[in-house]
Amino acid sequence: MRKPLRIHLDRTLCDGFGICAKHAPGYFSLDDWGYACLIGDGSVPEADRDDVMRALMDCPVHAIMELDERRPDDVPPPLNGDADPAEHLKTEANEAEWGFTR
């Protein structure tokens, strides 16, 4: 069984294409200016998963995301607890490795 789907709509990214409301009208509506609004709390039952995922995948500006999904511009996950974070610092001693230029 798949984990329950939870979505989030970032309205600051929305450009008002309306594709989400076309694919999943039970979860997305358009405001007076044509921008998307999320209906409900973002919980999606299994029966509606395909329609909502279609809306998520077809959004041209990626304004819809699955909660717990990582985006490329997110902060990287913390380092493994066994590793010393200081080993990865850029210093003068390892400037050739990091490509420092003076």
TrEMBL record:
A Pfam family it matches: Fer4_15
Residue ranges the record marks as coiled coil: none
InterPro entries in UniProt: Fe-S_cluster_ET (IPR051269)
Region (Disordered) location: 70-102
Superkingdom classification of source: Bacteria
Example GO molecular function: metal ion binding
Keyword field: 3Fe-4S, Electron transport, Iron, Iron-sulfur, Metal-binding, Transport
Keyword flag Electron transport: yes
Keyword Metal-binding set for record: yes
Cofactor: [3Fe-4S] cluster
UniProt-recorded name of the protein: Ferredoxin
